[in-house]
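Model it.
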Amino acid sequence: MALTRTLTQLRPIVAALTRHKVATTLIVLQVALTLAVASNALFIVATRVVHLARDTGTDEAHLFVIHNRWKIGREAAQIDADIRTDLDVLRHVAGVRDASPSNSAPLQYASSVAALPTRVRLRPDQTIRPQFAMLSMADDHTLDTLGVSLVAGRNFHPEEVRVTGPEDKAAYPSCIITRSLADKLFPAGSALGRTVYLPTGPSAIVGILDRLQGPLSWTREADGDNVLVPARYVDPQGVMYLVRTKDTAMQPIIAATLKALEARGDIRIIDPVEDVQTLAQTRERTYASDRSVAILMCIVCGSLLLATAGGIVGLSSFWVSQRRRQIGIRRSLGASTGDILRYFHTENFLIVSTGVVLGVLLAVLANLGLMKMLYPLPHMPLYVPLLGALLLWLLGQLAVWGPARSAARVSPVGAIRAS
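Modeled.
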């Protein structure tokens, strides 16, 4: 019965809306823009939240990084000897499980470390776009230091680890890659034992890691695509020491490692505050801007929704004041409180629905545009704007409830007398 009464009111509702084209159009556009902006913004926030929560695959709770900078004037041979000595010292500190040198560390931006973005090809003459990955130096202790696990193959042998510098272009005969990179390179079969071509030359895949989130690059979705090569990085600027502890209470162990390195402090510079970070601290600092952006976008979306709700309340209240005489006449002719409520809720549903249809189209087009401008942004599933549409329908019905209740309480005699 209520549905029949609602359907009979559609024609007068549409006729009334056509007499208020400007106001109706503004609300429709506001709903459409709110849906388009909020859907894409909240989708970006959701992808960022998932990104921030990703498991690095390492033993984060027991890892810290020392940024060791060499003093000017040290030769490559001296630096290599110094690194070997430092590693021996670090591995004998009480509470240290293992330590290894590297040119990069998990979760740190590639621009702030010596991480090497690289392109991995399946053939030396490959013309199609190669796979992007991050290349890091590793020795036979790196896997145990990071706490990562192999799903196939083996670790590097000590004799495979070679000394390399920033200008060294020699090929690496073997490499270890992450499973995500292996699946992209060889989706139809096992990558173990296959040969890939790095910019320095061919390299055989001897091991596949379950997961390793390495240094962060501009291609954020490729953070898990990493290549480890057997090399000890000799850079006059400095080296990173990755240290894994036996206990999660790392501060005493960090103090002990710094004290052990102080014995040869004349060759290095280490700031105990800026140059020593646990992996948990690195995660906190690296993702601070992402969290701020996510919070800001949520605030913007909330403000848009409140503005839309305010527009609906204002327009509905204005129409109630303009229609008091018509409402009074309808009440005197037998219209019930429910009839008046259904009229305004149906009117609001039609307005919001028109905006939703336009908004879904704008949301999809905006997502396609963002995908072209921001390469890592994935395709937004259709259910995201549809959920946004459902939210706007509910918001619209809640926003119109107050004015509709006010209209339903209009006295027939009072309305006609006031007019």
